[in-house]
Amino acid sequence: LSRRNSAALSEHFDFGDLRVYPARLLAQRDGMEIALSLRDTALLKKFAGHAGKTLDVDALAPYCWQSQGKGDAKAVEWQIGQLRKKIEHDAAAPTLIRNTDAGYVFG
Q1: What letter does residue 19 receive in the DSSP assignment?
Q2: What is the DSSP string of 29-93?
Q3: Which secondary-structure segment (H or E) carries 11?
Q4: H or E element, residue 7
């Protein structure tokens, strides 16, 4: 691998108790690896860049599978649900990505 490629593979950001490696499409928690999709990593980056701020459906729709664009709440709900199954300790009681009256929030 070139230096540039190896640096990209090692770049990460923390998301709660997860360490996310976008170029490798994975996260780690307590030494365990969690496989992520491109959409998962894009959503996690979006949330990490707006920690503590509510992101509405319109802000999240472009990162979701089969979204029809603005106001596509079903696509956002589905994508967040899939992501929660991967990253939350208990997807039914999420602590990393929480619902608010106006959307979703990390932190």
Answers
A1: E
A2: ETTEEEE--HHHHHHHHHHHHTTTS-B-HHHHGGGSTT--STT-HHHHHHHHHHHHHHH-SSTTS
A3: none
A4: helix 3-10
Q: Say which residue the tokens 């997860």 belong to.
A: 18
C-alpha 73: how far from its chain's center?
A: 16
Structure tokens at 57: 């459906």
19's CB contacts (< 8 A; 6+ apart) are 12, 13, 27, 28, 29
Could you tell me the pTM of the whole model?
Answer: 0.85
* Average pLDDT by stretches of 10, the chain with 107 residues: 60 94 96 95 95 95 74 87 96 96 94
Residue 46: both structure tokens together? 């979006």
Residue 71 tokens, joined: 């106001």
Residues in the chain: 107
